[in-house]
Amino acid sequence: MSVLIAERPGAGTGEDGTSLPFPYLLFLGDVTEAGFAKTAFGLRDWAPDKCVGEFSIPGASVSTGLAPMRPPEAVARGARGLLIGVANPGGVIPDTWMPALLEALESGLDIVSGMHAMLATFPALRDAAARLGRSLIDVRTPPAGIRVASGTPRSGKRILTVGTDCALGKKYTALAVSAGLQRRGIAADFRATGQTGIMIAGSGIPIDAVISDFLAGAAEMLSPAADPEHIDVVEGQGSLFHPSYAAVSLGLLHGSQPDGFIVCHDPSRTAILGHPAYPLPSIEAVILQTVALGRTTNPAIRCYGISLNTSSLSADEAERALEDTSQRLALPAADPMRPGDRFERLLDACIA
Amino acid sequence: MSVLIAERPGAGTGEDGTSLPFPYLLFLGDVTEAGFAKTAFGLRDWAPDKCVGEFSIPGASVSTGLAPMRPPEAVARGARGLLIGVANPGGVIPDTWMPALLEALESGLDIVSGMHAMLATFPALRDAAARLGRSLIDVRTPPAGIRVASGTPRSGKRILTVGTDCALGKKYTALAVSAGLQRRGIAADFRATGQTGIMIAGSGIPIDAVISDFLAGAAEMLSPAADPEHIDVVEGQGSLFHPSYAAVSLGLLHGSQPDGFIVCHDPSRTAILGHPAYPLPSIEAVILQTVALGRTTNPAIRCYGISLNTSSLSADEAERALEDTSQRLALPAADPMRPGDRFERLLDACIA
Q1: Binning pLDDT at 50, 70 and 90, where does residue B5 land?
Q2: CA A88, CA A106: separation in Å to the nearest integer?
Q3: d(Cα A19, Cα A3) in Å, to the nearest integer?
């Protein structure tokens, strides 16, 4: 993450220099389309303990259901950061948001953003942050100090979510699995590699923004050595079969050194998203390729199970798809959005 | 490449914004160890038409054999850039070089550097370049405007050198193959992906310095669509089996969409350089993995042959190693440093 810390180095960041300033006040701007507030909804659903309320400006018609409040009240309730929970086409920060963002800084909040536009490129924000000693944190920017991967084995267990494509449930699956393991009393952490995941976790590395030479090294840094029984559940990115992003997937695989992986798949998809000439790989192909490449840094790597995104299917169709997939591959198959026995069996496989 | 162009945007770069200002005057500083002048020797050997002479300061005891001259004479002979052809441990630019570098700028030369230290971070150089309208070019910095890979097939043929490891002849092989093809009257270009290669070619992209998301896109940009019979010979990087750099190799493979590849190997090496716990993969494993991954973006990909770095072997041993390798794999095997029939058969395979 890029942390502009004016006058007060370290302000607003955690002890390790990578934690975000939660709890957050979720900023919704003047959003009128629920789809553009996905980040805020993700925070509400996955990190309710990190959210004290929501804040919007006149014109907004979307709400997360959290208590509406202005920055001073949020600060009084313990908030440390204003998190921009809304996106618009282009990822720009409109002028109409500026008074609200400045109010947040004046009230003592840092600002956390995943927008394309970098916060520090707005002179009004930069000047106010400098004057007030507040931080402007762009989660799309990797932290400093990432090293080349060592390839050295490390203690602790790691699970990586991989996929037949982008955008079909790797973050959701990793969140659900880490939460499920924690519910069973297992020491587990979700390790975030994309901007929404980083906001939810409060830390992480936007892996696709790392310089190529340091990609595997960033993945090593993200899931460091831990107690032998501790489990890091690492949010996957892209797909080894993606014509644009496979390198990101491979660097993350090599650096994570996962003991096991879960293949995420959407049975309704037939081609790589945005690349109609590229047929979707089979789950089998992804398992074989992930093992073939992953064993470079962890020879014991194996597939723990399958996460199917069955959002396009009825309950009956979903059950049939999960049963068929599980039978065919002799592996647990579950949709984390449909909790129950199947998901518990997937968790069983993760700790077997 | 990072081009600081003070006051005169575009100065010192070619029409496409990526060509370096050759011919060069090779700067040797005060070098006393031939090993530290590797870049200058590489330029002399592979791009003699791009070098007008050499320039060193008192204390230097190493020479490339090119005519010694000061910057004004080099300019009179057509030089456009001073190329720092010497490295020292740490890649720093010592104060003792500064008068020579400033003399170059004053004489009308741009400066080209592959050092770790960025030229523009030296106030004296930055100020002089700004005042004189000269460029300070760091070839370790990728160009702007790299896009995400499209994955769309493109015209022209491409050959990629791949390897069982780093630093065993991928650049040398690509240079030798492109020169060999040109000698046969074939339209071929060497496409550089590392700093020395970029200086030799006069253009290129330092692929390992590209942001991960744009890695395959950079490789697409590096070897653009060309005439159907034109051949781009792309300098490979790393190895698909390297614990730190495999992602770089994969992004380069996917974006290059090579029709064929040459596996570079050093028979004296038993482990990945700097990673003794990682055994060197076999040539066979590299062929299988390169085909398995490369066919994502070019289903017709195949191995054209093997380039053995036999520098540690006697002539007889080298011949035996080449014959054994060729027999075992049923592919041409040659050491480009030992020209002859074997190398010609490798070229035959590249155009079959």
Answers
A1: very low
A2: 25
A3: 11
Q: How many whole angstroms separate alpha carbon A162 and alpha carbon B144?
A: 30
Residues belonging to chain A: 352
How far apart, in whole angstroms, are the C-alpha atoms of residue A78 and residue B148?
Answer: 41
Residue B212 is nearest to which of A247, A275, A278, comparing CB atoms? A247
The Cα–Cα gap between A243 and B300 comes to 15
Q: Which of B140, B244, B280 to mutate to test the interface with A (most CBs of A within 10 A)?
A: B244
B315/chain A closest Cα distance in angstroms: 34
Based on the structure, what is the number of domains in chain B? Answer: 2
CA distance A347 to A179: 10
User: Quick one: CA dihedral A195, A223, A230, A342, positive or negative?
Assistant: positive
How far is Cα of residue B213 from the mean position of the Cα atoms in its chain? Answer: 22
The pLDDT value given to residue A305: 98
A256 touches chain B (CB under 8 A): no
Q: What is the CATH number of the domain that holds A70?
A: 3.40.50.720
Q: Which two tokens stand for residue A257?
A: 């050194």
Could you list the residue range(s) of the whole structural domain that residue A17 is in? 2-138
What CATH number is attached to the domain comprising A190?
Answer: 3.40.50.300
Query: Of A264, A262, A270, A186, which is closest to residue A231 (Cα–Cα)?
Result: A186
Residues A123 and A161 both lie in one domain: no
Based on the fold, state whether residues A217 and A343 are members of the same structural domain.
yes
Q: Specify the higher pLDDT residue, B140 or B15.
A: B140
Is residue A265 a contact partner of residue B265, using CB atoms and an 8 Å limit? no
Cα–Cα distance, A178 to A193 (Å, whole number): 14
Query: Mean pLDDT for chain B?
Result: 93
Residue A145 lies in a domain: no
| DSSP helix/strand/coil, B328 | helix
Res. B16 pLDDT band, cuts 50 70 90: very low
Q: Judge whether B212 is closer than 8 Å to chain A, CB to CB.
A: yes
The length of chain B is: 352
Amino acid at B74: A
Question: What tokens were used for B75?
Answer: 């300019």
Calculate how close chain A gets to B39, using CA atoms only, in Å: 21
- In a shared domain, residues A191 and A310: yes
Q: Which amino acid would we find at residue B147?
A: R
Tell me what ipTM this predicted complex has: 0.91
Q: Are residues B208 and B344 part of one domain?
A: yes
Å between B242 CA and nearest CA of chain A: 8
